[in-house]
Amino acid sequence: MSKKTVVALILIFTLPALGLSSNPIVSNASAADACSGDIEPIIWNQSVGRSALVPHYNYYNGYFGFDDYYDDDSRGRDHESDWIYEPPREKTELNPEESWMYQDWDRTSRLTPLTESYHSTMLVGNDSIGALRVNLSADYRTTVCVTVQALNATSDDYSVDVYLLTTSEYQRYTELYYSSHSSNSFYSEISDALSDISPEWRGIDFTGWRSYRDAHQYEDITEINFALNLDGPESYTPIFGDERWQDFYIVIDTWDNNHDSDATAPGVVTAADVTIITTERSFILPNFTVAIIFLVIMLGMIIFPFILNARYMKAGLDVPADGDQPGLVPSLEVSAELTSHHDQPQPVSQKDYPDIDSTEAD
Fold first, then answer.
1. Among 49, 129, 134, 319, which lies 20 to 30 A Cα-Cα from 305?
2. pLDDT tens digits, residue range 178-231?
3. Buried b (16+ CB within 10 A) or exposed e, 273-299
4. pTM, full prediction
5. pLDDT tens track for 231-243
6. Using only C-alpha atoms, what is the Rg of the chain?
7. Which domain holds residue 73?
8. Is residue 204 a part of any domain in this protein?
9. Residue 338 falls within a domain, yes or no?
10. Same domain, 74 and 203
11. Is residue 48 situated within a structural domain?
12. Which of 105, 114, 108 is nearest to 134 (CA)?
């Protein structure tokens, strides 16, 4: 490898670090990390959605018409003896959520792509879930800042969990929540038994749920800032059916879910300040660049040994600068080369040695 090539590689890897302070993209990202920006007012269910899960309301109790069926007392049914009947829980002062947040959480309209910065303060009840639904854009870098505190109470052990979930992940998450708050379901017991499953097997765990990219889960905390860049629109196409677009849910969790390291229910109402900062990305590499880079690296690893071997085999065979041809090393198969004419010994002249008789010289 030549010196020019080495210098070029060093410059390629060091120039981004040298221009870190003057790069406008990095400067904007640093400002976003500080959770500062021009905050716009939220237009609910257009730019940001709000949903909740509460212990006193089980969505699946009325989903299949069970409530209407068992409310008919004219048939003389014994509600208490039937396993499928579960009396509703009463709402307490620790659950300040409004009914529209948890009764119609899945009947939501399509949100506009998130291109502005927003701030919201959510009141999340004890043993409940508070979530903000957004439609993230791949053209913007999104930073989420969450700060929580107990409302009208202080506790040294106070903490909650924060998750980032897609629509499909949030649906599985809600199923586990409703199952865990129902006395008629065994689904939560199975999920608790499989809570220690290793990460490489979580993809086939039908009872489990995962956060986005299996990384955006922040448990047992009171403050967290995280950022993410999307490679493209978040969507997937099932085996049967059309393409499905995914929204994102910023979840404030105050119940004891099936994760081993999560926080328990704090027993108080939580006030969560959520700030969403968006920064436009001026330069976005296409997705195929990653494949191209790895392809070049793999080809380089394959070709480099052949180049090194060729240079080794040619070593010592180059013509010297003075133009003399290199000679062969004498061996049994190759005889020694004769010396040149000017290197051969000259006959002794009698003029140089007059005292020597010519007959003796002969």
1. 319
2. 888 877 666 666 776 666 666 667 666 666 788 998 889 999 999 999 999 888
3. ebbbbbbebeeeeeeeeeeeeeeeeee
4. 0.68
5. 877 877 777 777 7
6. 38
7. 57-90
8. yes
9. no
10. no
11. yes
12. 114
